[in-house]
Amino acid sequence: MxxxxxVRNVSKSYWRDSFEIPVLNNxxxxxxxxxxxxxxxxxxxxxxxLLNLIAGIDRPDKGSxxxxxxxxxxxxxxxxxxxxxxxVGFIFQFYNLIPVLTAFENVELPLxxxxxxxxxxxxxxxxxxxxxxxxxxxHHYPKQLSGGQEQxxxxxxxxxxxxxxLVADEPTGDLxxxxxxxxxxxxxxxxxxxxxxxxxxxxxxxxxxxAHVVRHLDKGELQ
Amino acid sequence: xxxxxxMLKNAFRHMLRTTLTILxxxxxxxxxxxxxxxxxxxxxxxxxxxxxxxxxxxxxSFIFPLPLAYRDQIARLEGVETVTYMNWFQGVYIDKxxxxxxxxxxxxxxxxxxxxxxxxxDQRDAFLKERNACVVGADLAQQYNFKIGDVIPIEGDIxxxxxxxxxxxxYQPRDKTVDGTQMWFxxxxxxxxxxxxxxxRAGEVGWxxxxxxxxxxxxxISEQVDALFKNSRAETKTETEAAFQQGFIQGTGLIIQLLxxxxxxxxxxxxxxxxxxxxxxARERTKEYAVLKTLGFxxxxxxxxxxxxxxxxxxxxxxxxLFLSYPIVELFSLMVPKSWFPIFYIEPATIVLGATSxxxxxxxxxxxxxxxxxxxxxxxxxxxxx
Lengths: 223, 386
What we know:
The structure holds two protein chains of two kinds. Chain A is of the alpha/beta class.
């Protein structure tokens, strides 16, 4: 299987006042199509930064990131926004659902950026919510759902537009053990059954066990 | 459609705050409309002026009279259609607080020169036939419950003595820009009394109103009229009716300018109220905007979302304010004597100005939150703790 994501010699620093804080130091990484990659490491090791760079929500200072043949470091802001809407499904630790929208409307959000008709959007949303097992809760608002259910809606939102890659930042970090297991099983299913390439950042060794490949980051370097 | 729904839901996420903002905007719009209406009412005489009417008055001051003999000389000038004349009578009806315009006019010609005063033919004939008859505006008749045949007793001040006028006609203003609170009676009746009681004041008119055939000739005819009486005992000043009316309100110009200024200060207040709400709302949603950007929503999407929400609130506030302005202005016009502001209504231009201001305010109030939302990177936004 060919590599879908190519991270080449990427470095990234942040500035706090006048202090430069190096986060990633000359990182190179390949992720094959259909792979389930787990990124582990202590706090501040740079794993979320690497995930953000792969997802195109941040830019490296040096190096390049090629996803599905597109060098996303060359894209303008608007091109990058369009690229994200077509290719990336993002799952956050704290779900980040829009509280005033129902589960259905939250999942529909990324589809509003496509040329799908209302009927097609409805079909996509219903399919995505069925995959995560929440077809019966589609008209519920986030506050009417449990944490695990909210995360499942977030996953439905991430897969609704059928993206090339799924990136998950501590997807079980805010969940109890049972809900965390359900989410991990769902991610595993998305990988095996729906052939989604997944990059997941986690602290949790049990979560990392579900990944095919686990890479460790420490002090901005891949071990 | 979904984006509109999101705007609406965002707008009312904090129901109390948004409701108070909408009420704040509506109160300000009511105040704006009211002040603009007062300003409009002040200029109503100027606005209602006819371009084919000239006013000739004494060059020294409006309060000095002109000889009646000028009439025929003016009437002979080329381009002059009709000449009429009037005197400010004033007097006291009931008490000094009951103010309305009372004027002695040349009855035969005045109604021809002022076609916007609509008098039924039978009433017109009755008015012309009777020496002490008067014609009153419909608004005045309504205010004092005057009916045809009623006698209006007036205590003279400029023209001393007891005067009685019989209502023989009630004129309807042609439209709402025409003053319906005037009372006209025969100049000849006034002149007869002056001949008997104060002969020195007989044969004097307050000012001439000249109806001209072509408004383009106003300048030429004005010059010719004034040239006729140059170096005479009573030199004249002739100007368009609009300029004459403008002269009346010149003394109050500063107050009007202040009212005008205040009406625009109110727009500024609306902007601050809405701007404050939008800044708070956008700040609270920093993380959500970052999530939307992550999903692929672009800067223009966020701009539309924030500006749309701001516009939605400003339009709701403006619509409520403009809607409430009508009964409030109506109530005010009922509470104050009609003769204070004979023409007092919300002009379409005030509505257009109010609505346009609300749109501008909606956009301007959204600028800072938009700039902030666009400048905040996704990573910063996702880390934001409100």
